What we know:
This protein is mainly α. 85% of the residues lie in helices and 0% in strands. It has helices at residues 3-7, 11-41, 46-54, 56-83, 86-113, 115-121, 129-141, 143-158, 162-186, 191-215, 231-262, 267-293, 295-304, 307-334, 336-341, 347-362, 364-380, 383-390, 392-396, 398-409, 411-434. Helix 4 (56-83) runs antiparallel to helix 5 (86-113), helix 14 packs antiparallel against helix 17 and helix 16 packs parallel to helix 21 (411-434). It starts with a helix and ends in a 5-residue tail after the last helix. The mean pLDDT is 84.
Amino acid sequence: MENELFEKAPIHKAYMKMAMPVVMGMIVTLIYSLVDTYFIALTGNTELIAGISICAPLFTLLLALGDIFGIGGSSVISRILGTGDTELARGKSVFCFYSSIVCGLIFTAIMLVFKRNILLLLSATAETYVYADQYYSWFILGSTFVIFSLVPSNLLRAEGAAMASMIASVFGTVVNIILDPVLIFGFGLGAAGAAIATVIGYICTCVFFIIYINKKSKVLSLDPRLLKSDFSSLAAVLSIGLPSSVTNLMQTLGLTMTNRFLQPYGNDNIAIMGIVLKVVNIAVLVIVGLAFGGQPLFGYCYGAGNKERLKKFIRFGLAVTGGTGLFMLIILSILSRPIISRFLTDPEMINTGIVMLRFQLLGIAFMGMSLTIICTFQAMGKALSALILSACRQGIVYLPCIVILSFALGLQGVIMAQFVADTLTLAIAYGLYRNLKIK
Length: 439
């Protein structure tokens, strides 16, 4: 446990030392995401691209489930470590690990039973259903590994081992990248090949985490003898984990609604938006890494009662996420045409993609600042504030925006909805933060 880093290191040094491994892990993930999209786009089959894009909400749904035990557990453990009780933190980690496995197995069974209904809910059509079905089936079979991997990824950062978390992500992603062309083209598996490569990558990540925790972790444990299914552990983890998972659940809902509102304008627009959102992840994942990199620091300082240092970390987090978002907006907007042209060849589709990309990026700085405030609430155990704000960006704020704007402006309104939602969400975040008492 790196107490020096949490308690005495300069604010910018401590924050960036925790955040940069998370950012690097996110960058590797987005590189895979772009490579994956590139290989799929090489098929030239817009129905296949749209079919996989339709399944994108599945990944955010798995993130939501993993975050219940990952971010919820990280918040609890970081605050416990701030009080110096390592043994209690170890017991909480065991509870989080095994609960995530049980959750994953139940989820897999339910999703396979209701596969057809869910694919139709995700806007699969007669043309895209076969490809969506191929990807869905294999991805869901490996969903337990995806959910479990998110738990040690977050808990290791709570004990200051952010580098190990990054290495695990890099390892699984490299495996993923290598297998993608082999399975998609070499074995001719198409959409199924992309899903199988993803699952194998996550299995490799899980294996790395298990080995690391058993051999090197000073706080975490996988020893089932330490498992205690007490209500206090469940309540503590769920109080923060559930609001955290709402962020990804809302993203799942937002993606589904976006696809539904794009459906009247054809599968081409769904495919283009799928590509655009992968590109936007360049900014989103970097900012997410910067925001969540600070969460263990927030929680530790709050648990230790060091409110002055906590406020400094929060201010730095807001500055770095907002500034990075602005930088990403400028750079990716300038490079929008060459970027989109790498995935599409039709001039009209490229122009549509450029417009979509720029509007998706307009509110990215606002998103980063809102996310930092969410991480602050989660780290401090402020469940209600975290829940409200987590539900805003692609949920209770986004849905009215996309309904009203699509009705008023058609396709252009659908494209603009995320920027308007990001702006309103930041206003709500600012109001909630002003009411937060850090004395």
